[in-house]
Amino acid sequence: IQISWNYNYGPAGRSIGFDGLNAPETVANDPVIAFKTAFWFWMNNVHSIIVSGQGFGPTIRAINGIECNGGNSAAVTARVGYYTQYCQQLGVSPGIN
């Protein structure tokens, strides 16, 4: 999971124990920190959406909010298409959202 901007690096660094604001490259250079950062982002931004049953749409918004706010509607459409195809291949319903 990609994180961006100070509002992610700062809190992630404080939570995990690295200087996310002054040394964000730590995420790229340390595989353990990279994994912990991805897990931090997931648990703080996405997990509750999934376990509460809100659907795939809100999950996309949590991870790629700029795309969902009109920044790249083609990417959103493609992402939903891939998700729908994967669900069909796995024999599961994609849900209503």
UniProtKB/TrEMBL annotation:
Record PROSITE patterns: CHITINASE_19_2 (PS00774)
Name by which UniProt lists this protein: Acidic chitinase
Every Glycoside hydrolase family 19 catalytic domain range: 33-43
GO biological process entries: cell wall macromolecule catabolic process; chitin catabolic process
SUPFAM superfamilies: Lysozyme-like
GO molecular function: chitinase activity
